Amino acid sequence: MLEVTNLRKVYPTGDEALTGVSTTIEGNEIVAMIGPSGAGKSTFIRCINRLTEPTEGEVTLDGTELTALDSGEMKTARRNVGMVFQEYNLVERLTVMENVLSGRLGYVSNWAALRRNFPQEDVEMAYDILETVGLGGMENKRADELSGGQRQRVGIARAVVQEPKILLADEPTSSLDPDTSHAVMELLTEIAAERNIPVLINIHEVHLAVEYADRILGLHEGELVFDGPTTDLDENAKDVIYRGKALAGESSSNYVEGSDTVTGETEPTDKSTITGD
Amino acid sequence: MATEEGHSELPPDRTWRRPTAFGNHRVKWAVYVGATLFVLWSLVSLLADVSLGRLLTGVNNGLLLLEAMVPPNTASENVDRVVGYMGETIAMAFVATFTGVLISLPIAFGAAENIAPRPIYYLSRGIISITRAIDELIVAIIAVKAVGVGPLAGIVAISYLTIGFFSKLFAEDIEDIDMGAKAAIDATGASRFQALVYAVVPQVAPRFVGLTVYRWDINIRSSTIIGIVGAGGIGTLLLRSFERYEYDFAALILLAIIAVVLAGELFSAYVRRRVQ
Amino acid sequence: MKRVAAFLVAMGTVVVSWLHMGLDVQYIRTAPAELLDLAVRMFPPDWGYAPEIVVPLLETVHIAVVGTIIALTVSVPVAFLAAENTTPNRITYAIGKLIVTVSRSVHVVIWAMVFVVMFGPGAFAGMVAIAVRSVGFVAKLLGEEIEEIGFDQVEAIRATGASSSQVLLYSVIPQIKPALVGIGVYRWDINVRSATILGAVGAGGIGVQLFNSVDAFRWSAVLTILIAILGIVLLSETISARTRAMVR
């Protein structure tokens, strides 16, 4: 179970990317985080495994307070958090197998890592996961020989082989064509069910979020303005998330309390729901 | 390098080893061990008789040398000598670039696979690899023995060195041209030479200028050095100043060389940007 | 029009250069004959001399090997200084660039003259000269490669919980290894060639025998040495080219 309490991030430039976000993710739910570009979605995900250092707030994973760990302990704790990236972030000059096995680095010595000498169980697990993501037999290809969809599958395999307690995906479909995007989303939902872990996905395409997620988090200018089941995401809610527009008398438990974006800011924003990065 | 293997064989091998570019791991280790042993041999044979004391003395000598060099001797007769020899150095580079490029042209066309007849192609390629293998100072000293001490030897040496470099790179440029244009000219019934002039030359002219200037820049560097073996230019003066322990004068010469080399590099970079 | 002008200026400079040197035309007319004469005197090569040059030839290769290894070791930190994305600040960047420029703009023979003064004549001075001359070359190319490192790849490995040295092993090194090996063998190949001439200033290698034979007018021995140099240079060129084709 992932508990995030009052997470705040201020960049050295003075930009406040997150203004104090709290939420809980558990079970094997698929949670999609949506919101316009620059709303703080990536910052939120990266603060969970502290690739970005949060300014304030707590992140707790299965009882371990990640935000209280020193950097050595955090390295160990990162094994429990799998991460999938928008640009796949594979090590281009290594083979598919090395990329997948790099998910096990946290469990082996430096010397074994240098010699590419991973325990037999790890290798077998890597073969199994490659089979699951549909890349059986590709283990000796180099990452730079693969297509975008194949690379993202390797990225997912690398995260899954960690045997994480939660899977984070930062815009996993943004660099892919529509068909491949669907395949990747399906794969992520299958993994959640099969391994019984929650998956938190940052995503631009609202229709993909609606199709695959159990629950939606809506972020607007660093503030969590929506948190509820996918079925509750109506046009009004989208307006709040994407335009920060005041809601006309509508009141629902899904709108996060204490949100002041609804009032106050009246300048018409130009942000569209389909902005790409 | 990735090897593609069929994946359908029945009992799948569940172990994994990183594929190696050597094709097999035994060859890989043999190469690694061989290379390591050779390196060890090199280290031992070069460093065995180098004691810490000798190193320290060397560093100390270096400091003394530096002290003797600073400040550089800028007496006016020295400056005059540097200017005079530097003039000869630069003049050598200009003339040698001209003659070298002139001689290279037919060889470059001969070494272009797409326009040269086979026998000429192999002959030209042969000339290129031989001219490239011997270092400039060796060529210079042989030129000195052949035509006597002085800038003429330098011109002969640098021209010779220009041939291998220029022909090779220019031939590659000629190979990159669009053959469609040549086919079109050929179709008009033009002779081989006419096709060359009308279809090939216009396409490679900018690269020709760029390469010439680039080689001129390299030739400036060479002509500052070859005086060490008597082939003219400022190298003569540098060697003499070292032999006479006039290190403050040597410092002046070194600064002049660095300045001219950097100026040549900047000029060549500027021209190449303009023409390409 | 501008092109014609530039061409005329260039040609004018060549003519002025020619006149400036005040060369005696007599020499030029006799030069081809002299060169031919020299060629005749070189033949046939003195094969009896061959055994004597085996050791100096090996020394030449040793100088290139050790010089290149030292240059590679030194140039890694220099490259990190001279790369915009890894240098700590503007002063370190300037220092990195300065080392690269100074090392590159001084010819290996000049470096050899300096190190012969410092360490005395011999292969050691030559090796140091080769190393110092190569640092700038290697650091420049390696620095350019470091500027290309994808930090997203580094981050992804960090996210798996890898230790710092594992991050280095699995994301930084795979990215610069081909460049490091490629630049290394390429420079080694150039250095074999350079090491053949260090003898001109007493800094070891086959050049010592070569220049002695030239001074003694033993032309057939000179040809033997030249053939040996040609062989070793072509061999190192082949090794270098094949290694670079293999590592990518």
Automatic annotation (TrEMBL), chain A:
CDD domains in UniProt: ABC_PhnC_transporter
Keywords assigned by UniProt, alphabetized: ATP-binding, Cell membrane, Membrane, Nucleotide-binding, Translocase, Transport
Region ranges (Disordered): 250-277
GO terms of molecular function: ABC-type phosphonate transporter activity; ATP binding; ATP hydrolysis activity
Keyword Ribonucleoprotein: no
Cross-referenced PANTHER family: AMINO ACID IMPORT ATP-BINDING PROTEIN, PHOSPHONATES IMPORT ATP-BINDING PROTEIN PHNC
Designated name of the protein: Phosphonate ABC transporter ATPase
Organism: Halobiforma nitratireducens JCM 10879
TrEMBL record, chain B:
Compartment(s): Cell membrane
Transmembrane segments: 29-48, 90-116, 137-163, 218-239, 251-271
Pfam families to which the protein is assigned, alphabetical: BPD_transp_1
Gene3D superfamilies: MetI-like
Superkingdom of origin organism: Archaea
Keywords, sorted A to Z: Cell membrane, Membrane, Transmembrane, Transmembrane helix, Transport
Major location (coarse): membrane
InterPro entries: MetI-like, MetI-like_sf, PhnE/PtxC
The keyword Repressor is annotated on this UniProt entry: no
GO cellular component: plasma membrane
Gene Ontology MF terms in the entry: ABC-type phosphonate transporter activity
Identification of the protein by name: Phosphonate ABC transporter permease
Species annotation: Halobiforma nitratireducens JCM 10879
